[in-house]
Each structure stands twice: as C-alpha cells, then as structure tokens.
Amino acid sequence: MSDSHPKAETDPQLDILSLEKAQRMAEFFSVLGDPNRWRIISALAHQKLRVRDLAAAVEMTESAVSHQLRILRTMRLVSYRKQGRNVFYGLKDHHILNLYQDISEHLDEPED
Amino acid sequence: MSDSHPKAETDPQLDILSLEKAQRMAEFFSVLGDPNRWRIISALAHQKLRVRDLAAAVEMTESAVSHQLRILRTMRLVSYRKQGRNVFYGLKDHHILNLYQDISEHLDEPED
DNA sequence: TGAATACCTGAACAGTTGTTCATGGGTTAA
DNA sequence: TTAACCCATGAACAACTGTTCAGGTATTCA
Predict the structure, then answer these.
(1) pLDDT tens digit string along A63-75?
(2) Residues B64 and B70 sit within 8 Å (Cβ to Cβ)
(3) Is any atom of nucleic acid chain D found less than 7 Å from the CB of residue A60?
C-alpha cells in the first residue's frame, strides 16, 4: 500500500498523529474551547437567529458576537443566510450536538 | 419540576447554556485544543507508556510532557500507575477516541 | 439624498497558555 | 550512604486569545 502519511519518527510500533494532523485537530477543538462560543452554539441549536438577537440572548456586544461567529464560520460550524440587512445564523452541522451530549456524559461521570 | 439551573435571562423561548456549564464545556474542550496533547493521546491509544518513552515518542522534553500529563489527568483523560520509579500513563476513557473519529470526519468533509 | 439600521473588521490591550529552565522528591543500585 | 535515575513542580517569558473601541460597508426608509 502506498500511503502518503508519515510514519512515527522514533519507534515503528507507535503511530503518533503527524504534526500537521494534530494541529488540525487542535485548531478545531480550540474553537470549542470558549464558553461564549458554547452559549452561542446552544442558542442556535433551537432556531436561526439574527446577530442582533443572538447578541441580546447571550448578553454580549454585537461586535464580540460577530467576531466569534466569524471563527465558527471558518470551522464551518454555523450556517449563514443574508436577508436584507439582517443575517441569520444557524447550526450547520449536528456533529456538534453529538459532541455536546458525549462530553456532558463525561463531565457528569463520578470520580473514581 | 423543581430544577435548579438558571433559565435564559432574556427570552424564555431560548434556553442557553448557563455560564457555569458553558465554562465547564469550554474547559474540557480547551484541553483538546493543543496539538502536542493530541500527539500524546495518540501515543497512549495503543499502549501504556512511561513518561520518559512518551517524551521520546512525541519528541518533547520530559518536563513539557509532565506538565501536559497533569492537565490530562485533571480532566481524567489518562490513567496513572506508578511502578517503582516509573510512571505509566494510558488512556482512561474511550470517549476521546470517539471524538477523534467524529472530528476526523468533520475535518474531511468537502467544502460546500 | 440623508439618516438610521444591521453587521463586519482592524487595532490595541489585558488575560491566558505552553514551553524552558532550575530545582526538588522519591526510588533503585552500588 | 551516595549516586543515578525518573518524574513533578514553580517561576518566568514569549506567543496566543478574546474583548472593547472606533470606524466602515451595505441596506432600508423618510
């Protein structure tokens, strides 16, 4: 098989994520590493919202929300629909809600 | 039902994650938001390793790895077993590998 | 056309993060 | 006991992140 991904550098038995792939994973999870982004995501889980209403809902300035939405757009987590002078955002992908479920479980597991 | 979690502050129709819960979600995902931590996780996916060998495998200093392992321990993502003067780490939880699978898919999805 | 509305963007600044460096504790072998 | 080994930790510093603030673009309405 002529696979193009690099092998582990030190020990052939281990196969460690390549730096590039690890970087992509980290970039994605970093986007989910901000509490205000989670609040935005949760607000969009039930309905599409204008930036203005979203800002009011999560109690942030429109500017701050707009900055965050750009990041969520970059990671293709939200949908974007311009209608007149309003812009409606929604959740693009339901992987995210699955993540939310999974991690909620993990966080709720008892110590051992 | 006498639930103790706070309701949305602005609009009863929306239910947005509480600040506290959003914070916990974000803290968890932040841990997965570092490329070197993903390389450590991938190394531990197949076998338990001593700090020393882990450091060699991911090509980091033992100190840096030790710092990162502490973070992973705090989030209960890795197991810890001390044996003489060696400490073996492994993956504690398989939620993480599921996450890895899910997000790989997301990252590999074509643009649209 | 001019003003108001809805949203976006760049710069700057405070707060956070991850590494290195130096050191210290605990365990094993001589 | 002494020396070597394995790992953990605190401080410090550079790099990154998210907000605010000021301004800018595009659309609607009077």
Answers:
(1) 999 999 999 999 9
(2) no
(3) yes
List the single residue in A with minimal CA-CA distance to B76: A111
Q: How does A19-35 read in b/e, with b if 16+ C-beta sit within 10 Å? A: bebbbbbbebbbbbbbb
**Do residues B63 and A47 touch, judged by C-beta distance below 8 A?**
no
pLDDT in tens, A31-78: 999 999 999 999 999 899 999 999 999 999 999 999 999 999 999 999
B58-72: pLDDT as tens digits: 999 999 999 999 999
Nearest CB partner across the interface for A42, out of B16, B43, B95: B16
Chain B residues touching A57 at Cβ < 8 A: 8, 10-11, 14, 16
Give residue for tokens 């460690």.
Answer: A16
Counting residues of chain B whose pLDDT is more than 90, the rounded percentage is 67
Q: Report CA dihedral (A18, A19, A20, A24) to the nearest 10 degrees.
A: 100
Cβ of residue A68 lies below 7 Å from strand D: yes
Which residues 4 to 23 of B reach strand D, CB within 7 A? none
DSSP B31: H
Residue B2 phi/psi, 5-degree rounding, is -105, 75
Domain spanning A19-108 has what CATH number? Answer: 1.10.10.10
Domain boundaries, chain A: 19-108
Contact check, Cβ <8 Å, A30/B30? yes
- What is the reported pLDDT for A110? 66
